[in-house]
Amino acid sequence: MRHPLVMGNWKLNGSKHMTADLIAGLRNALSSVDGCDVAIAPPVMYLGQAHQDIAGSHITLSAQNVDINLNGAFTGEISAEMLKDIGVRYVIIGHSERRTYHKESDELVAKKFAVLKDAGLIPVLCIGETEAENEAGKTKEVCSRQIDAVLNTLGVEAFNNTVIAYEPVWAIGTGKSATPAQAQAVHKFIRDHIAKKNAAVAQQLILQYGGSVNDKNASELFAQPDIDGALVGGASLKADAFSAIVKAAAQAKNG
């Protein structure tokens, strides 16, 4: 049975003080919550502090990005081994903001996926369509293309012990969200797409929804059979809102 996962992507937000306060708030609010995996993805310079602050809790650590190189003359980059060395478990790759602002291609994202698998880290592969692509009826086409970049180079087995986060670009940070039925339809398509290659791999794959997830819409989203959790943006910066989303996932998936 798949275990729900709720992850907070802090993006370009944070400070030493904020990191300490937010983690303290999460530890307090989530101390009695069971049945849902929880991860946070602070900016890279706060990962070390966050690792210390979450010690002894069931909160795990994620990074927001990784380089395809392991070492060498690559100024400003962070390697998979470095992330692993400071306690990171998950790494977000292919986020639409990276694809848009840093021109990251499907091919580059697939290389990052491979590097993470080799390092024993868990990739969180972000996929999703823009508003124009959605209106043109290209949602499935875009999602399958972004998945196939990994599928066709690494094989379906690479998706064992990984996460795919479906984030419609038009819903990220806009306050808009896909309806639970819309989100479920795309999640089912993603799982079915993987199942064409290997049904067992598809069945264990964690599928998250992302895109203006908040404490108001979380329960309905998590009630859908193929939505296993959420990649949360803005709401992850507030301990009460993020905790409510985690609790909603735990309740929806575990009764």
TrEMBL record:
Pathway: Carbohydrate metabolism; erythritol degradation; Carbohydrate degradation; glycolysis; D-glyceraldehyde 3-phosphate from glycerone phosphate: step 1/1; Carbohydrate biosynthesis; gluconeogenesis
SUPFAM superfamilies for this protein: Triosephosphate isomerase (TIM)
Enzyme class: isomerase
Molecular function in Gene Ontology: triose-phosphate isomerase activity
Biological processes per GO annotation: gluconeogenesis; glyceraldehyde-3-phosphate biosynthetic process; glycerol catabolic process; glycolytic process
Reactions catalysed, as given in the entry: D-glyceraldehyde 3-phosphate = dihydroxyacetone phosphate
Chief site of localization: cytoplasm
Residues annotated as the enzyme's active site: 95 (electrophile), 167 (proton acceptor)
Any one cellular-component term (Gene Ontology): cytosol
Record's keyword terms, sorted: Cytoplasm, Gluconeogenesis, Glycolysis, Isomerase
Origin superkingdom: Bacteria
EC number: 5.3.1.1
Binding of substrate, residues: 9-11, 173, 212, 233-234
Annotated compartments: Cytoplasm
Signal sequence coordinates: none
Annotated function: Involved in the gluconeogenesis. Catalyzes stereospecifically the conversion of dihydroxyacetone phosphate (DHAP) to D-glyceraldehyde-3-phosphate (G3P).
Assembly description: Homodimer.
Family membership: Belongs to the triosephosphate isomerase family.
Official protein name in the record: Triosephosphate isomerase
The organism of origin for this protein: Izhakiella capsodis
Gene giving rise to this polypeptide: tpiA
